[in-house]
Design brief:
Largest sheet: 8 strands, mixed
Strand content: 25-35%
Order of helices and strands: EHHHEEEHEHEEE
Radius of gyration: 15 Å
Structural class: alpha+beta
Number of helices: 5
CATH class: Alpha Beta
CATH superfamily: Gcn5-related N-acetyltransferase (GNAT)
CATH architecture: 3-Layer(aba) Sandwich
CATH topology: Aminopeptidase
Strand order of the largest sheet: 6-7-5-4-3-2-1-8
Distance between the termini: 25 Å
Length: 176
């Protein structure tokens, strides 16, 4: 059974838990260079006004983060998503519920028709998760992302059209 999943805006009280999350090797592999200062600046304070960050809570515990950026130009109306979940919550449906909720919000409430995500090509777990809600591979972006090893790695561009979103399954609650 999927835990109760809630998406909410980060608070100063979350900082220690977020630092611990990004320090876990399985998370740090895909989110390198997220130290305390960067997490506070980008996620808690929200310095980047183009990105909206949510803490993912599962059964009341901080399980990860999910964020989106939006292209407001009426000629495009697209958005992107990124997600990081603690390994303790892998395979529980937490990530799928969080992705469904944010994708639905971006499509139904914010008016986007096209969503993208670009996991590392080596991140098979993430790619399988994204496919569960309807994302499809578009192509490989070569040497697109700086990895923790200091070299650039390929990412898989995936997209989701509004009418392809699979809402059959658990969906997180979003709290403003």
């Amino acid at each position: 059974m999927t835990p109760d999943v809630v998406l909410r805006r980060p608070a100063a009280e979350d900082l220690d838990e977020l630092v611990a999350l990004f320090a876990q090797p399985v998370v740090a592999q895909w989110w390198p260079r997220y130290d305390r200062e960067r997490i506070e600046r980008e996620m808690v304070i929200g310095e980047d006004e183009d990105t909206t960050v949510y803490v993912i809570e599962a059964d009341g515990a901080v399980a990860g983060v999910i964020q989106s950026w939006e292209e407001p130009d009426e000629e495009y109306r697209r958005a992107g998503i990124d997600i990081g979940v603690a390994p303790a919550w892998h395979g529980t449906g937490v990530a799928v519920a969080a992705l469904r909720a944010l994708a639905r919000h971006l499509i139904e409430d914010r008016g986007h028709h096209h969503l993208t995500i670009d996991p590392a090509t080596a991140n098979g777990r993430a790619i399988a998760c994204y496919r569960k809600i309807g994302y499809r591979p578009v192509g490989v972006l070569r040497r697109n992302e700086l990895g923790g090893d200091g070299t650039f790695h390929d990412t898989l561009l995936m997209d989701l059209l509004a009418d392809e979103l699979d809402l059959d399954g658990p969906v997180a609650t979003i709290r403003s």
